[in-house]
Write a structure and sequence with these properties.
Length: about 120
């Protein structure tokens, strides 16, 4: 009987370490996500004097308001890379939060909540 108690404590310790590791990773990933631009690239077309001009804009939502910012042609590849990196970090953050949600009840912790847009863990 005593051996099982020791094994339970060691398993709980490993789960606690994994939980703490995931919490730290979520914080790091959230900081990385915040350093990249939000939104997506949108091409706006304007007709003027029989010609069609295309302008690239970065659009994102702030509350109920849609915000748009013009992006110069030479910055488009860099912005596209940053947007893809942000999406990859968001995907990783989602996986980590799901792992936290799985581990929390095993350790007797409050289950972390997850918001759809920001993917922030609320503990």
């Amino acid at each position: 009987m005593r051996k099982n108690k020791i094994e339970d404590d060691s398993i709980k310790g490993m789960l606690r370490d994994e939980y703490e590791r995931c919490l730290n990773l979520v914080e790091q990933v959230q900081r990385s996500i915040n350093s990249y631009p939000r939104g997506c690239l949108v091409v706006k077309k304007v007709k003027s004097k029989g010609r069609i001009y295309e302008y690239h804009h970065l659009q994102w939502r702030e509350g109920k308001k849609v915000v748009s910012r013009h992006i110069p042609e030479k910055e488009i590849p860099e912005i596209q890379k940053k947007i893809k990196l942000r999406e990859a970090y968001q995907s990783n953050s989602l996986k980590l939060i799901k792992r936290l949600q799985y581990l929390a009840p095993l350790l007797g912790e409050k289950k972390p909540a997850m918001t759809r847009c920001s993917l922030k863990a609320v503990l």
